[in-house]
């Protein structure tokens, strides 16, 4: 909770100190689909990620009078080095490629696709640009439709 919520609140607070005098800015926070769909991970993690989206909405309302936009991006699990290592440890040092495949399979929903780090980066770039100047308080879900069906496909 301290990392996932307190860090978001403090990050928004310190960014706002710089942006308020300029009457402009865009703040992006990282949520997770686990804050939208239950039973994927432990309750405290899901709760902390749901709280991130709430903090974003409340901050967007507070900072809108200063021309500052605040948004959130919630994605499916990505095969980052940290997550690959965790999966390999859970399943007793399985091969790295198999861990990557498990992560991709567990969140694959849109046929013929998989979520890549670049997909989340593109969503963040869009929200930060002037093309999204009228979007604030939004939680952009980058999940290929995963949260619409909540089918967990993870298996060792």
Automatic annotation (TrEMBL):
Highest taxon of source? Eukaryota
Transmembrane segments annotated in the record for this chain: none
Q: Which UniProt keywords apply?
A: Lipid metabolism, NAD, Oxidoreductase
Q: Give the Pfam families listed for this entry.
A: adh_short_C2 (PF13561)
Q: Which GO terms describe its molecular function?
A: oxidoreductase activity
Q: Which family does it belong to?
A: Belongs to the short-chain dehydrogenases/reductases (SDR) family.
Kindly provide the name given to this protein in its UniProt entry: Short-chain alcohol dehydrogenase
The scientific name of the source species is Zingiber officinale
């Amino acid at each position: 909770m301290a990392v996932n919520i307190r860090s978001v609140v403090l990050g928004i607070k310190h960014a706002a100190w710089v942006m308020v005098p300029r009457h402009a800015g865009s703040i992006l926070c990282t949520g997770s689909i686990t804050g939208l769909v239950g039973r994927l991970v432990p309750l405290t993690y899901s709760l902390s990620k749901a709280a991130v989206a709430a903090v974003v909405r409340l901050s967007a309302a507070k900072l809108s009078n200063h021309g500052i936009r605040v948004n959130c991006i919630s994605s499916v699990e990505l095969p980052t080095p940290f997550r690959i290592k965790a999966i390999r440890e859970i399943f007793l040092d399985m091969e790295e490629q198999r861990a990557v495949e498990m992560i991709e399979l567990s969140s694959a929903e849109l046929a013929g696709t998989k979520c890549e780090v670049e997909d989340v980066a593109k969503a963040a770039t869009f929200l930060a640009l002037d093309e999204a100047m009228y979007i604030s308080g939004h939680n952009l879900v980058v999940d290929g439709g995963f949260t619409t069906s909540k089918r967990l496909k993870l298996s060792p």
